[in-house]
Structures are given as structure tokens and as C-alpha cells.
Amino acid sequence: MIDQNSIRFMLGCHRLGVDFDTTLTLGSQEINFSTLNIPEACRQSQTELKIPESIANVRELFTHLKAGKLDEMDFSAYEGANILHNLNDPIPDQLSGQYSVVFDGGTLEHIFNAAEGIRNAMKMVKEGGHLILHNPSNNWFGHGFYQFSPEFYFRALSEENGFEIRRIVIHNTTDQWFEVKDPNEVRQRIELFGPERFMTLICARKVRQCDIFSRWPAQSDYSEMWTTDRTVSAKQHWLSDVRSKLKKLTPGWLLRFMHRHMGFLYRKYSVKNKQNFRQVDNF
Q1: Could you report the per-residue pLDDT of 169-200, keeping only the tens digit for each?
Q2: Is residue 283, in this structure, part of any structural domain at all?
Q3: Residue 281 resides in a domain
Q4: DSSP 3-state assignment of 72?
Q5: How far from 19 is each of 62, 137, 243, 273, CA to CA, in Å?
Q6: Mean pLDDT of 93-105
Q7: 129, 99 Cβ separation under 8 angstroms
Q8: What is the CATH number of the domain that holds 83?
Q9: Strand 22-26 and strand 99-104: pairing?
Q10: Are 180 and 135 within one domain?
Q11: Do 166 and 191 fall within a single domain?
């Protein structure tokens, strides 16, 4: 489903120089007109494109993004896809490197074999092209098989796998955007707790052809522990054990009270943590 946030993001990507000439969508997409505000999306993305408010469908949207060719890939043809393929399985060789943009508006979380799903998407992008994703991150329990943390994208869409991330943001249901730091840069996990729903938007460029996932990505903090001095790692584990024991000794009612009424204690795990998140108003 293409909504206000994904349109704003794609318009911003176009301003960055993303070429939509040959575009593939994963799944047959529809526009969520209930949230659509084209003038606001244009203002926030700072685009020079002239997008009419009367957009009727996805094909018209991508035409305004200068797409000369638009293909749709889906498991079945019931929504009109012209390329039928199960993304749990490797794509045919003839689809590799065929598209300047591969866009996922909410398909990957429904693919049980998620690693093969994103690898397929990465393979179909031609060198110099872009992968644009819009997938659930927090509090989408039951929507699909998975909810993805930004760490997943930072490790998958890496230079080792032939990609570089140009932009990654999360947004909530009130359309507030927050740029996310790479956990490997801040040297800690970037965690987000709370009642709000968040989704992640990613724009990544394919910088070279290579064997994707020739080595499986590892979570950055574990990679650091495996290569860090054992005495430092032991100290970190000792501190973690102390915190865990203190939590077990604290009555449940007090923990619930602290969580509900003492939010400052959990600031580290919210978008108010400026070390990990930065609010953005424009693309």
C-alpha cells in the first residue's frame, strides 16, 4: 500500500537523483487515498515535480516520477501483476539487474523466507539503481510474519553486499519522521519501546554487482563483542547481569508504575534519544 509517507519519500528520492525510468514494484500496489495530501508531500519532499492532486492510481503516480516502464511482481495475477514469482524462491537469471528502482510498499514482511526475499529485491536492481523499501518496524504484531529493525537493513544493504544506504527514517502514525543512526556507528543497540506504531523507509543505492550474502550479516554489537578484548566484554556482561538481577528484585507493580509514569527512565528507548534519532521535517 502506497501512502502519504511513501509518496513523500519517493518524491524526495527523485530530488536526490534516483532514476525511476525502469521501476518494479513488489506486489501490486494501491494508493491509500484516506491519508493522501499531495501538496503537503510535495512541500515536505522539496520536489520540483508537478504532481496533480487528482492522481487516480499507482501507474499514474510513477509516470509523474518519470517512470518509462512499470512492472509489478506478485505471487498471483489476481491483482493484475504482469510478472508472477514467489519471492521465497530465487528469481530467474533474466530478472537480475533489470531495474533502476525496485520498490517495496509492504511485501517483504509477508515473505516467510525474508533473507531470500530481500536478496531477490537487491539482485533485480541494476548497478547505480536504487532499492526503496517501506516496511513495518514496531507494534505491527500479526500484520505479517515479521517486523524489521533498522539494524536489519544496515547490515543487509551494506558495501559488502554491493549497496550503500542513502536515507533511512522511521515514522509513526502521525507522520513524524526520525532519521536513524547506524548501531555500528553509535556502538550500541538502537531499541525502541512504547505504544506507537512505526514503519521504516529506506533508500539504498547499488554500487556494484557482487555475490549477495556470501557471508550472512551479523548484528553489529555481537560482531564487536566477538572481536573485542575479553576483559572488556566480561565487564559489559557483568553490568548487564547486575541490571537483570535488580529488575528481578523489583516488584512487578512498581515496574509497571515506573513504565507508565516515569517515562524519563526509558528515554534511552524512545525517539527522544537524540544520540540514536533525529526528527526531520523535510526530506
Answers
A1: 999 999 999 999 999 999 999 999 888 999 99
A2: no
A3: no
A4: strand
A5: 11, 27, 49, 34
A6: 98
A7: yes
A8: 3.40.50.150
A9: parallel
A10: yes
A11: yes
Distance from C-alpha of 164 to C-alpha of 160, rounded to nearest angstrom: 9
pTM for the model stands at 0.89
Q: Which amino acid is at 184?
A: N
pLDDT tens digits for 14-72?
Answer: 999 999 999 999 999 999 999 899 999 999 999 999 999 999 999 999 999 999 999 99
How many other C-beta atoms are found inside a 10 Å radius of the C-beta of residue 255? 11
Domain count, the chain: 2
- 260 has pLDDT over 80: no
CA distances from 122 to 133, 165, 181, 199 (A): 11, 12, 22, 20
**199 and 246 belong to one structural domain:** no
pLDDT tens-place string over residues 157-169: 999 999 999 999 9
Same domain, 163 and 252: no
Does residue 39 fall inside a structural domain?
Answer: yes
**129 within some domain:** yes
Identify which of 6, 9, 5 has the alpha carbon closest to the alpha carbon of residue 46: 9
